[in-house]
Amino acid sequence: MRLYIDSADVKKIEYLNTYYPIAGVTTNPSIIVKENRPYLELLKDIRAAIGDEKELFVQVIGDTAEEMVEESKYIRNQLTGNIVMKIPVTEEGIRAIKLLTADNIPTLATTIYTSFQALVAAMAGAKFVAPYVNRMDNLTIDGVKVVSEIAALYKNYGIETEILAASFKNVQQVYDVCLAGAQTVTVGPDLIEKFIAFPATENDVQVFKTEWQKVYGLDKNSLVGS
Fold first, then answer.
1. Pair 187, 213 in one domain
2. How does DSSP assign 49-76, residue by residue?
3. Residue 209: domain span
4. Residue 44 contacts residue 70 (beta carbons within 8 Å)
5. Nearest to residue 110, comparing CAs of 94, 131, 133?
6. Which residues belong to the active site?
7. How distant is the alpha carbon of residue 137 from its chain centre?
8. pLDDT tens, 6-43?
9. What's the domain count of the chain?
């Protein structure tokens, strides 16, 4: 499983990239506008925070396939490193995925709500698909089940497109899609920090430290030697 940060908050990205095994960053127009900054400057700062090797996902806003392709090429010319373009699974978006794939530009098919959308996007050449788990749940669609169905379809047809599950409200949903077959997930900073947060862990660490200090004292060099 690879973990992506779903955010455009540069400070949070820098922090999480330092402490967690982060594969890259996903953004979308709603996430970017929250930062209230020039978007290219913001994307360049995100790139600087994670380096050129890790993937940075940027979403198009054009309506036609031609607009999406033009926008994708412009973004990639403005940024360095590993860029993946996020394309919606509309008819125009599927066409754009085909055109971009022909130009060796990697894409993520976004706004996935059904397993068949994911299948069509993969057939068009998408490198990733992003099923919206919690948004599906809000529409009384079982988001985890859809992820499982996508994984089964890809296995049946030998499709190498990866499932990058998105839209989560809690850690349980993330855990469930990992079990359901998602190779990658993109998660907001607040949820990522909850992945390893568990009261018993902190308590055990403090007990170990207290017991050690009772015998060896408070000297910080007592474990490694003075």
1. no
2. HH-SSSEEEEE---SSHHHHHHHHHHHH
3. 196-226
4. no
5. 131
6. 86
7. 19
8. 999 999 999 999 999 999 999 999 999 999 999 999 99
9. 2
